Amino acid sequence: MNDFQSIKQLVRDFYKELDASSKEDVSAVLSKYVHDDYHWRGMYPFNELNGVDEVSSIFWYPLKHAIGPIQRRPDIFFAGTNDLKNYGGDWVCCMGHLMGLFDQSWLGIPPNRKMTFLRFVEFNEVRDGKIAQTAMFFDIPAVMKQVGIDPFPSETGKWFITPGPFTHDGLLYSRSDPMESKKTMDLINRMVDDLVGSDLESPLDELRKTWHEDMIWFGPAGIGATYTVPRYQDQHQGPFSEGLRDIEFLGHIASFSEGKFGGFFGWPNLSMRPSGGFMGFPGSEKTAHMRVVDIYHRNGDRLAENWIFIDMLYFLHELGLDVLDRTKRIYG
Length: 332
Description:
This protein is an alpha+beta fold and 332 residues long. 32% of the residues lie in helices and 34% in strands.
């Protein structure tokens, strides 16, 4: 049975060299660890990149030029075999923050010359001893908020620098009990089935079947976090369903678990029309898509914590609002 130790070590070695490298040396590090046909997914405006040169020059070089020296501060790290048979593969997930001094403009966001946190989650599929593909989600609006720019009119929860698990045991560098992993995956799948079957809005009694009463939902900047089952329904699920129409679930690309942690990502996961307005923006009859990551922490027989990444900039761009372009025009 695969204990995933070798692929976890490979990703950890990759991170160590990548984080220590200069912006000029990123290409050499990537070439050492990734396949020739390496495919990379990132949030808007990066979207999909192919090969070492594109990923190095378009994403990593500008980031390292703007923010550094980068210190990776992981909160969750786990691996597993993809539960989705149509995609498959062995994957490693890491979630936390990239921290550094924000000294140069990035994506038109003016620097504050202070310690800044870029919230991220990254999925790496390892195949034949190298990384074949990466999906890296990061909360760009959270960086904007740290420098004093609030790109969204309102949020239903509360945004802050997002903490890791309450139990401080999310870094699964050692082997995990496969039975615990299965319990986590089964619970996540049951929760997703309930949610999809109820048009992404579950009544309180249904939520309590898979969630602890004092659950925490850590949403992205613009939506924010919320605490307890009733407040989650009031501050996120309710506004979500009230503002968005014709929601369609499009599926995921990778979904896996290890120990008491698990998660998934899609590209995109959902399509919808925000005809009722969302996050303080006026309604629109255009169809837009959400690229979403959910990372879960199981405690006993229920889910206790949930970290969510949504590519809000891509969602709004499809509706005709380019938040980064607006930021450049105002602050550039």
